[in-house]
Design brief:
The chain has about 200 residues and is mainly alpha-helical. It has helices at about 15, 30-45, 60-105, 120-135, 145-155, 165-175, 180-190. The two termini are about 20 Å apart.
Length: about 200
């Protein structure tokens, strides 16, 4: 992904002075930011004369420039899609590893006697936390986002957060006859997405 040093805006370069934009380039996926940056990077590399190419002394036509922009957009979208799919698979495998670790640890068989997770074994409570944090996310905006961040740090450190009504949601799912493993298999069968921080969209400055 472009760094802060090489991000472009609609009006950064010569195209801004001519009030040109690239909206005519169709987006094929949800990776608008990556596609935008790829398109604007091509425009930045080809200031108009003929247009000047990015190799010494060469010129390209407007049609050739348009094809370069289209190719950059398609490549950027595909790369962003591949990265997101890879990251989603990593999160899926991490979730399974965490719940299997919790459910197979004999030290986590003890029943919790106090707090909102009372009545659950510690292993089940940890497994439900990982499931619900991943598949039923809360905390998309401040201050909930800070609560989520701190609760995830607590969970990753071996704690048992009591946030977002997750203990009560886990009781509801158990009442339906679901175990943490069955819940997760159902979510995967439905093609449910696992929460990622990058899925939260913030308004651009």
């Amino acid at each position: 992904m472009p760094t802060s040093k090489n991000r472009f805006t609609h009006r950064d370069g010569w195209w801004g002075e001519l009030n040109l934009r690239y909206q005519h380039v169709p987006f094929q996926s949800g990776h608008e930011f990556e596609a935008e940056q790829a398109a604007l990077a091509v425009l930045a590399a080809h200031p108009p004369v003929g247009f000047v190419g990015d190799t010494g002394g060469s010129e390209i036509s407007a049609d050739q420039l348009n094809e370069l922009v289209r190719g950059a957009v398609e490549n950027a979208e595909q790369e962003a899609k591949n990265q997101r799919e890879s990251a989603a698979e990593e999160r899926r495998l991490l979730g399974w590893a965490k719940i299997e670790e919790a459910l197979s640890n004999p030290n986590d068989d003890r029943v919790i006697n106090e707090g909102r997770w009372a009545g659950f074994s510690r292993g089940d409570a940890v497994a439900w936390c990982w499931n619900l944090f991943q598949y039923e996310p809360h905390g998309f905006t401040h201050p909930g986002s800070q609560v989520r961040h701190e609760a995830m740090r607590q969970l990753q450190a071996g704690g048992l957060p009591e946030v977002f009504g997750y203990p009560e949601r886990a009781r509801e799912l158990v009442a339906r006859g679901l175990t943490p493993r069955e819940y997760r298999r159902h979510q995967e069968a439905l093609g449910a997405r696992i929460f990622a921080a990058l899925d939260v969209k913030h308004p651009r400055p």
